[in-house]
Amino acid sequence: MGVFGKYLKKILIFLIKIFLISCIFVFTKLNIMAKLRFKAIELAQSRKPIEIKEQLKRSELFGKNVFNENTMRQYLTKEAYKGVMSAIEHGKKIDRKIADQVSSSMKEWALSKGVTHYTHWFQPLTGATAEKHDAFFETIENGMAIEKFGGSQLVQQEPDASSFPNGGIRNTFEARGYTAWDPTSPAFIYGTTLCIPTIFVSYTGEALDYKTPLLRALHAIDAAATDVCKYFDKNVKKVTSSLGWEQEYFLIDKALANSRPDIAMTGRTLLGHSPAKGQQLDDHYFGSIPSRALNFMRDLEIECMLLGIPVKTRHNEVAPNQFELAPIYEEANLAVDHNSLLMDVMGRVASRHDFKVLFHEKPFSGVNGSGKHNNWSLSTDSGVNLLSPGKTPMSNLQFLTFFINTIKAVNNHEALLRAAIASASNDHRLGANEAPPAIISVFIGAQLTQVLEELEGVTNGKLSPEEKTDLKLNVVGKIPDVLLDNTDRNRTSAFAFTGNKFEFRAVGSMANCANPMTVLNAIVAKQLKDFKVEVDALIEKKDLKKDEAVFNVLREYIKSSRNILFEGNGYGEAWEKEAKRRGLSNNKTTPEALKARISKKSIELFEQMNVMSKIETEARYEIEIEEYTLRIQIESRVLGDIAGNHIVPTAVKYQNMLIENVKGLKEIFGKDFEEHASQQIQLIKGISGHIEAIHAKVEQMINTRKKANNLKDAVKKAEMYCNEVKPFFEDIRYHCDKLELMIDDEIWPLTKYRELLFTR
Fold first, then answer.
1. Which secondary structure element, helix H or strand E, spans residue 629, and what is its range?
2. pLDDT at position 172 over 70
């Protein structure tokens, strides 16, 4: 044989051993995965509802862990209290002396509640909240220690900003960022930590968070709306933007969720065949809430009460294991903070109940996804809702002014509004016949449409006494009755008027509400500012009376905003064609949609309203484009891993079992075996076809991903991921889902939809 032959034999034996070990490892791994699935199901089925005892009324719990106005009255000096309230109401700066008083009182209150640490709680451009805990504890001389918290620690901190998205705003050596106290949002205690809501800015002063532009936009709408209000009531000093969000979510048993690598890594299922029964019977919406879920909700609501989050409504949503939580309306900045806090608290409370909360807009194929409707309105410091009719023609004219200006603002900036809700996850939901389409339109109902048509016929220039009387009595005066009977609703509209507010229905469930609220308040502020200029010009140059000037301008706005108004079915192809004819954008993907953010028109808008500088706007665009790419990249890698390392080996294993069965039948029946093994042979061939397709598609996806990763241009990379990498997802999923129906349930490695969605 020779020396060479001996070595060759040894190498061959070694390779065979490696192969056998690999096979054993793969099969063992598969067995482990299948066992993990059934263990998770067994564990989920054994769970009992955790008993929740409520000893106090909700009203007694509300705000107990919040440094709110009531608490400040107890702990602050008169001087400090006035200083903080002045900052809250008028945006005045808090001087250092008052800051020291506030911090001392805040520390005293926090220590009485068992608090040991404090943190500046902020919302960087990651979509999540951020916090770095520091102890009150400080050492002093002679080995002694005290609890210390000064004004400087309250007002400002300097956390490392290097690991947060910045869009090229800062250099590497400018890693430091600044968090600055936002007194308009009260400090709160969660666990043993005092949380101080703050803004987050870079070393050079640009915004690195969601809160800073929102506060600027709220200031802009306050100034613009207050000026317009003075046409109707000279006593109005402040206009507040309010928000009522509706948080939808899925509640999945923790063990079942952890058994799915795709849920753990991406927040959604990348694979999984729809169950025989999903939501087609419409038996989930407003249905009886399962006991485990109900006790989770009760526990969550208690936590919310303590934190001052005014949650009020809970119910089953359309899909199985899908729910909704909604609060009472609040001032927009506070509402945004409360929603961001809620999403964090929900995760923690869910864990106590052995649940996992899924906020992804489309975690399961074949059933409804989740949104977060943003209900928006404006109100004066005198308590008047500007989007609600009054009892007099003058108050109704005020309503029409803000109503029509909002429609005009959306008409002018619909593409920017679409960009405000763009994300990789929301792309799955928009236009999926369960949510509004990607086309932004405004629904107002048939009766209000008729009111606008009548206003459109207003005479150009001065009105005759008869026209004035007719307008005020027969058009404007009848608005309360119109709204009383206006029961129209359109679930296919992205932006709908619902009686005393506008509902922005296209916001995704994972989104930070600050982004759409910043854009909405900014565009309406710009529109109201332009409106005032036009009305004042007519009063001064055309010698028109105030109400005549208002009517004339509103008439032109109605004419120029017709394109955005739509009452029909937003899901139909006909609307897509009609929207295109009207010149409305239909940006179905995030890379398409985000371009509106950096248009000349949008940059000028944000600069004019002092909401964001050009640098800040372009930075956010860069961050959002990069985030989109990374999310699709992660999903692609996870899908390739599951398909190649879990699904295909399982299919091969089952195929081998079938082959052994066919061999046995051949031994028994000889030449006639094919008659008895026809189904098995068919299955073997079918499995082979799907395995081949998965291998080919995964390989193609990986190669395409490699090409995309080599691109230097961030926008081109995002577009390639969107248009060339992402399409592989459905193809790979199709073949994997077909295998799920073919392979023995006992060895299938992934927890199935029927187990995820129907285990109580």
1. helix 614-642
2. no
